[in-house]
Amino acid sequence: MRNLLIVSTLFLLLAQAGFASIREEPLEYDHNGVPLEATVVYNDAADNKRPGLIIFHDWRGPQPKDIALAREYAGAGYIVMVADLFGRDVRPRNAEQAKEATRELYADRDFFRKRAFRSFDAFTKEYWIVDAKRVAVMGQAFGGTAALELARTGARLAGTIAINASIKPASASDGRKIQGRVLVLHADSDPYLGKSELHEFIDEMREGGVDYELVVYGRAQRGFMDPDAPTTVRGAAYDPDLAEQARETIDQFLEQVFASEQ
User: Fold this and answer.
1) Which of 14, 55, 69, 88 shows a CA-CA span of 20 to 30 A to 63?
2) pTM here?
3) Tens-digit pLDDT profile for the chain (262 aa)?
4) CATH 1.10.630.10 fits 2-260, yes or no
5) Cβ(243)–Cβ(221) under 8 Å?
6) Domain coordinates in residue numbering, the chain
């Protein structure tokens, strides 16, 4: 995280001097007849190819926190897409609406993967400054599940990051298609993680020969990285110290996978 902060500070100084600008713009695309609208964030002062990062939202849909995170990584020199998995007109306002929005995707694994891949495809084709060899994807909870499902399509990814996600594969052979490295961060007190899920995921990684890392945080709850984690939801609680620790792990992972593809 220290290196990311140094680079971010440099870009901030350049911006203040008038040489750099963090740009946000919509990216419209569609899947299965559903119009989708993502947000792409990048520094428009340079025209070089750069690492691409896709952020998948959680069950609440794209949030201001996702854009804020995208701006941080754009400041570090990445081009970042906050993808839309629900549809331009679907923005849940409560838990019931969020459950309804995710139901179709969770119910059909193949459809879920195709929706995630459509975001990847639109991003890499629309923006020529995305270095196709250096694209990573990340998300928390529902978004982390989407990241793994995208990886299981065989999409060319340098890295996949899933945080407190449902990581259960459809079969142990799912991992055979995964490209790049995988980082999974989990809370050991996550009440939604099945007892066998970690073992099935490990079997998938082994079967596919995937270069993966699994980190389980002791005494952590599902929302340990989410400052907006609802206190009324069972097993959800933000932990700023663990969040900082996990963020450092994520940033180091991204630096490593992007450097390895240069």
Assistant:
1) 14
2) 0.90
3) 555 554 544 444 444 434 468 999 999 999 999 999 999 999 998 888 999 999 999 999 999 999 999 999 999 999 999 999 999 999 999 989 999 999 999 999 999 999 999 999 999 999 999 999 999 999 999 999 999 999 999 999 999 999 999 999 998 899 999 999 999 999 988 887 777 899 999 999 999 999 999 999 988 888 889 888 776 666 778 888 999 999 999 999 999 999 987 7
4) no
5) no
6) 2-260
